[in-house]
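About this split. The held-out portion is used to measure sequence recovery: a designer receives only the structure tokens and must propose an amino acid at every position. Recovery is the fraction of positions where the proposal matches the reference. Here is one held-out target exactly as it appears in the evaluation file.
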């Protein structure tokens, strides 16, 4: 199994020139403010898009990228500042100081990495074939949210050993809004602009200096395991077609081992000379094969007019890349593509309209909503062909789409529940994509699929949760009877990552399997999820077995210490045990990106029965209090994923995300209100270092969006949302032809407490509401106050159901 810790180890420009202005000083420092460098309206962003700061998460350990993409787009055209080590997972970090070039595929917020395909870098002067060194000399960066002090000192900037084809840039000369990015490359005097469609990108390069310029296409570039080791590439080809086209393809053997990528590039004017390289040796032909290929395209008078470059990509073949390019960017209209991208983003972002007196809240909210649409990503061509998980080429039925980049261990918790509210028409497409993967993949149900390859990253098999949630919520076009056999095999038969132990002994022994405690807990939740799918498919006996087995969490819970903890194959608790520690031995960790404090509360589906193991609900509530108030100290070997600490609660990583909402099950809902409001206001900022951990393909952001709305799906498969502390004065969510309004009265920074709730004008005493209610549309109204109403949600009948039970009635 690969876990994310493994990756720790290892026309604007034309106007400027025409007016005689210096483009090096024309771009505003406020990169996301929307002002044009010429002071005109060309860059003006209107609507809710103007509140998005795409640079949120590009510092600290957020691992986001600032480049141009479309909502759920297949192309992510963005600058690369580095391509190795953990804080380069997106290819970009605001602290690196120089740009290697602009590549067409990126991951948003991940803790492991790949991609960075088809790097393009404009240049002047002598051709450089090596990228050179970045300015930053450290390994990982520091973040305000770090739970463990970094092991490396934060170095100061220094001159690089080798300059290479990189270019320095000033962050004041960098600007981006949804669907558009630009930067001045200081070393070459080139203004670079990027925008994108779903399957293609278009670059616009304006060469300020007179004379010759060139484009370098580094087809050996990509994310790599560590500095000094090249990206693992095979079967690479490059081919010149006439004087204005370059095509190619390759396989990459990094995280998604063996994935395919093809591209087609067209230029707005012919090049004057072109040279292909293999192993940095020039070739005399117009076609190259090998594992280390580059191309350099020369232009004698590069400064005379902006040079446009169009690139389409495909995982199927070069013809697919050409077809995608021709279908989506037929003309040489950079501003037209940019305008269409802006319109698409505005359409998607405006699905939720909010009112708040706080500009910071508005910026954080829409920056978060933006990041919820960076993944999953489209992964099929305009003709419906796609590369399946068996690496064969398949054909979609008309109207269907295939997707990639499902960070399921993270996103089942808040991102996919959020989609069921504000992207409901997309849910069947996303879920049916998972079912196709489960049918096609030799590895079975998806775990972390990326571009036709199962990375196997993280634990559990939480595609089961996403599928079961959609079925439980009644989304059309998802065949439960077809889905069930695909997941039944994993649940009852597969020899997969400790599952045989789990089935036979009721837990996974920590002397037999790494991360065994966390695996036991997460398999238990997958069992609970699949019991719903089995019921929907008519497999009632299987459903009954899975429900009972979903209580296997009991077998790793020590009633004496009231912690989950590692247990040996002989049934004995393993020593030594430290609830802050990562495990009982140096052989492996017993928990996944967490410790016993956090894992003890990893029960989303059977809270009332679980509370009895602590000695009852008051004792469970007291343990929650301890979690938030104990020391935040962590051992030196704790992974940096454990960040954003409040006591031993870690907001920077997903196992903690539902925990503040568990007070609702004890009847102390006012504690959920206070804690959620505190997390909303302390764990998010509209700044590069504004996220408490890796953004994780939208999950960290989805937590904010859901919680700002006052809702959270503790147990997504139950189809219920627990109330928190709504941050907004008003929000209107567009759900197909329905509207859901969430409004607050008496809200403010010092008023986190719910006094009362009404639904469509009628009093609502429960501390939760069902998806079925919200999906009808209506108005959910919260009366807020600076003092808690301890009676709200306190009665057992008003607390959220769990395991199908209400409080006080445990089956």
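Reference sequence for scoring:
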């Amino acid at each position: 199994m690969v876990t994310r810790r493994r990756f720790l180890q290892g026309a604007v420009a034309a106007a400027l020139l025409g007016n005689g202005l210096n483009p090096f000083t024309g771009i505003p420092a406020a990169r996301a403010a929307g002002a044009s460098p010429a002071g005109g309206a060309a860059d003006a962003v209107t609507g809710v898009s103007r509140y998005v700061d795409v640079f949120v998460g590009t510092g600290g350990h957020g691992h986001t990228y600032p480049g141009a993409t479309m909502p759920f787009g297949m192309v992510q055209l963005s600058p690369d500042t580095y391509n190795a080590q953990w804080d380069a997972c997106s290819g970009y970090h605001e602290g690196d100081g120089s740009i290697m070039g602009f590549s067409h595929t990126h991951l948003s917020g991940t803790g492991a990495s790949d991609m960075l395909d088809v790097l393009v870098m404009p240049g002047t002067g002598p051709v450089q074939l090596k990228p050179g060194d970045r300015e930053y000399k450290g390994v990982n960066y520091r973040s305000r949210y770090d739970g463990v002090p970094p092991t490396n000192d934060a170095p100061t900037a220094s001159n690089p050993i080798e300059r290479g084809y990189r270019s320095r840039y000033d962050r004041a000369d960098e600007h981006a809004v949804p669907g558009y990015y630009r930067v001045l490359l200081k070393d070459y005097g080139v203004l670079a602009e990027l925008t994108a469609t779903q399957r293609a990108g278009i670059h616009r390069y304006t060469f300020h200096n007179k004379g010759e310029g060139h484009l370098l296409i580094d087809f050996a570039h990509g994310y790599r395991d560590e500095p000094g080791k090249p990206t693992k590439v095979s079967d690479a080809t490059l081919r010149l077609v006439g004087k204005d086209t370059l095509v190619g393809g390759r396989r990459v053997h990094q995280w998604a081992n063996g994935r395919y990528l093809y591209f087609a590039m067209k230029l707005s004017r012919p090049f004057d000379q072109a040279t292909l390289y293999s192993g940095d040796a020039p070739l005399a032909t117009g076609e190259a094969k090998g594992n280390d290929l580059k191309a350099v395209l020369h232009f004698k008078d590069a400064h005379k007019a902006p040079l446009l470059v169009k690139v389409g990509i495909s995982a199927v073949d070069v013809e697919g890349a050409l077809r995608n390019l021709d279908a989506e960017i037929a003309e040489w209209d950079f501003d037209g593509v940019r305008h269409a991208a802006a319109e698409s983003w505005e359409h998607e972002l405006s699905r939720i309209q909010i009112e708040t007196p706080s500009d910071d809240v508005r910026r954080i909210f829409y920056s978060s909503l933006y990041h919820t649409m960076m993944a999953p990503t489209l992964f099929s061509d305009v003709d419906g062909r796609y590369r399946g998980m068996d690496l064969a080429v398949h054909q979609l039925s008309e109207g269907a789409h295939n997707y990639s980049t499902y960070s399921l261990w993270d996103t089942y918790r808040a991102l996919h529940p959020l989609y069921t509210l504000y992207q409901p028409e997309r849910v069947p497409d996303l879920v049916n994509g998972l079912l196709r993967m489960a049918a096609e993949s030799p590895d079975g149900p998806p775990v972390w699929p990326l571009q036709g390859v199962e990375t196997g990253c993280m634990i559990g098999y939480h595609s089961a949760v996403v599928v079961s949630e959609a079925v439980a919520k009644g989304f059309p076009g998802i065949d439960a009877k077809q889905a069930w056999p695909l997941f039944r095999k994993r649940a009852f038969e597969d020899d997969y990552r400790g599952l045989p132990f789990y089935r036979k002994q009721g837990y996974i022994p920590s002397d037999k399997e790494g991360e065994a405690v966390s695996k036991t807990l997460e398999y238990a939740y997958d069992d609970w999820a699949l019991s719903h799918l089995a019921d929907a498919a008519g497999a009632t006996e299987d459903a009954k077995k899975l429900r009972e087995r979903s209580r296997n969490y009991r077998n790793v819970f020590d009633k004496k210490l009231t912690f989950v903890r590692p247990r040996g194959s002989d049934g004995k608790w393993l020593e030594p045990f430290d609830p802050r520690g990562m495990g009982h031995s140096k052989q492996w960790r017993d928990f996944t990106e967490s410790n016993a404090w956090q894992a003890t509360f990893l029960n989303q589906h059977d809270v009332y029965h679980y509370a009895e193991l602590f000695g009852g609900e008051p004792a469970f509530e007291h343990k929650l209090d301890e979690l938030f108030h104990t020391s935040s100290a962590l051992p030196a070997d704790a992974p940096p994923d454990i960040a954003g600490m409040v006591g031993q609660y870690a907001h920077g990583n997903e196992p903690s995300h539902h925990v503040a909402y568990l007070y609702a099950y004890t009847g102390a809902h006012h504690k959920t209100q206070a804690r959620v409001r505190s997390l909303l206001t302390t764990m998010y900022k509209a700044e590069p270092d504004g996220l408490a951990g890796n953004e994780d393909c939208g999950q960290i952001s989805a937590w904010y969006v859901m919680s700002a709305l006052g809702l959270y799906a503790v147990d997504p498969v139950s189809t219920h949302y627990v109330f928190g502390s709504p941050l907004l004065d008003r929000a209107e969510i567009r759900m197909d032809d329905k509207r859901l309004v969430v409004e607050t009265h008496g809200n403010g920074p010092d008023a986190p407490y719910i006094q009362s709730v009404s639904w469509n004008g009628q009093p609502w005493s429960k501390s939760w509401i069902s998806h079925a209610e919200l999906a009808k549309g209506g108005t959910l109204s919260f009366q807020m106050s600076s003092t808690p109403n301890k009676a709200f949600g306190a009665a057992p009948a008003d607390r959220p159901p769990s395991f199908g039970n209400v409080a006080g009635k445990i089956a």
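Annotator remark: Residues 5-42 have pLDDT under 50 and may be disordered.
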